[in-house]
Design a protein that fits this description.
This protein is α/β, with parallel strands linked by helices. It is 45% helix and 16% strand. It has two domains: 179 residues, D-Maltodextrin-Binding Protein, domain 2 (3-Layer(aba) Sandwich), CATH 3.40.190.10; 182 residues, Periplasmic binding protein-like II (D-Maltodextrin-Binding Protein, domain 2).
């Protein structure tokens, strides 16, 4: 396995630290009782055996030659200096990798995948990317699967959403970096007394003459309703990244429940279409993301509060938890011909995606950790927006790849509600026709 020697090295270091942490033996009495002589000899023999084993293993790992070379790293511009400093720290602690020179370049998560797919050989050895690009990267041969020895560590230490985002089929292909892209509820707690239900929020806003903002003519936000009721909307791709199949179930009883709730929302006098708090007026609640947390705090002041998205009651009388898309930043390693270089890349990627660095990254630039322990740190837990998002992400699906035309189609569906073409007076047949047209068009994008 590609990390076997490296894991053995770290295991030896861990064993040594563990033994050191146990401290020295208690001071022996001046004259030990004769009955203890055999026990002492046995203990000394065991210690000598352990010492010999450790010496042999240390010698074996010390003899590993990881070679020399250059490793290119791509990360977003605002974490270039941070990443350089973290890599320098890691190499300083692991001189066995000092034969490698690291170059950290500014290539954003949105651009990294396109650049890698265009020319894998010229691309970065380690790179951060948005989770919706993972299938394209795998089919292009631009992602090495996570080292088998690291899989348990990654899956146990990061939240389920980020692990799912880093997985294609049953294979883990990337190291989660963040769980901080998605939407949730900002609200004015002097107006909204209970943010747990959509009906309650609307009632409070209506009573106060305030507005609830949500962008229902967006293919990103409107999935909050459809995914809540159990509808599917995903695409399969082939090895070239072409869309081969659309998995869409909007034209269904579940889709009808979701569409009717969107119509109910629009017909509330408190509703306003939008998702940018900087453009909202007379607002008491808004569905938005962490990127607007500063603006929300400034607007609501002492009444600033955050929560996961609410539940809603469907036309069938059942309660549904609003869902939607979740977004994650991932760190990938490019396949390497040199096995030693691959082991070094894996070690660095695992470190950059680990608890310590995720927490440091949050403190430096505010990226929300995917690491479970980091999420439970005092710093992160005190961040109300990230806490609300973390709770909401448990109900979402990672955003995959979607045809460009899907987004315009989703806007049209929302616009038909906003314009009054589809209303609470529309028949179920008319509503189902709109859903069927939407679904058929979605499917056509993969044909």
């Amino acid at each position: 396995m590609k990390m076997k020697k490296l894991v053995a090295l770290f295991a030896t270091a861990a064993m040594t630290m563990s033994l050191t942490a146990c401290g020295g033996a208690a001071e022996a009495p001046a004259e030990a009782p004769a009955a203890d002589t055999a026990a002492e000899e046995t203990t000394e023999a065991a210690a000598e055996t352990t010492e010999a084993a450790e010496t042999t293993e240390a010698a074996d790992t010390a003899d590993i030659d990881y070679g020399t070379g250059e490793i290119k790293v791509w990360v977003a511009d605002n974490v270039v200096d941070f990443t350089k400093a973290q890599i320098d720290k890691f190499i300083g602690d692991h001189s066995e990798f000092s034969g490698y020179t690291f170059t950290v370049e500014a290539v954003g998560e949105g651009d990294a995948a396109g650049n890698m797919i265009t020319d894998v050989e010229a691309g970065a050895d380690i790179y951060a990317f948005a989770q919706d690009q993972i299938a394209r990267l795998v089919t292009a041969g631009a992602l090495e699967e996570v080292a088998p020895e690291n899989v348990d560590m990654v899956t146990s230490q990061n939240d389920a959403g980020s692990v799912a985002a880093a997985t294609v089929g049953s294979t883990l292909y990337a190291y989660p970096l963040t769980s901080d892209n998605g939407y949730f509820l900002y609200y004015d707690k002097s107006v909204v007394t209970d943010p747990s239900t959509l009906e309650g929020i609307l009632a409070d806003c209506e009573a106060a003459g305030k507005s609830l903002y949500m962008e229902i003519n967006s293919g990103w936000y409107q999935t909050a309703f459809f995914f809540a009721t159990g509808c599917d909307l995903t695409y399969d791709t082939d090895d070239q990244g072409n869309f081969t199949k659309a998995n869409v179930t909007y034209a269904s009883d579940n889709g009808l429940i979701a569409l009717k709730k969107m119509i109910d929302l629009k017909e509330s006098k408190a509703f306003q279409n939008g998702s940018a708090i900087g453009e909202a007026t007379n607002v008491a609640a808004i569905v938005d993301g962490t990127w607007d947390s500063g603006a929300a705090q400034e607007l609501f002041g002492d009444n600033y509060a955050c929560a996961k998205l609410p539940t809603f009651q469907g036309a069938d009388g059942k309660t549904y938890q609003m869902s939607g898309f979740g977004g994650f930043k991932l760190l990938g390693v490019k396949p390497q011909e040199d096995e030693n270089k691959l082991m070094v890349c894996d070690a660095v990627a695992a470190y950059l995606a680990g608890e310590e660095v995720q927490l440091a990254r949050y403190n430096e630039v505010g990226w929300g950790p995917s690491n479970i322990n980091a999420q439970q740190s005092d710093e992160v837990k005190s961040d109300e927006a990230l806490s609300a998002l973390a709770e909401q992400l448990a109900f979402t699906i990672p955003q995959g790849q979607y045809p460009g035309d899907y987004w315009g189609l989703a806007t049209s569906l929302g616009d038909s509600i906003i314009s009054g073409e589809l209303t609470s007076s529309s028949s179920d047949d008319d509503l189902m026709k709109a859903l069927q047209d939407f679904q058929d068009t979605c499917i056509s994008y993969a044909q």
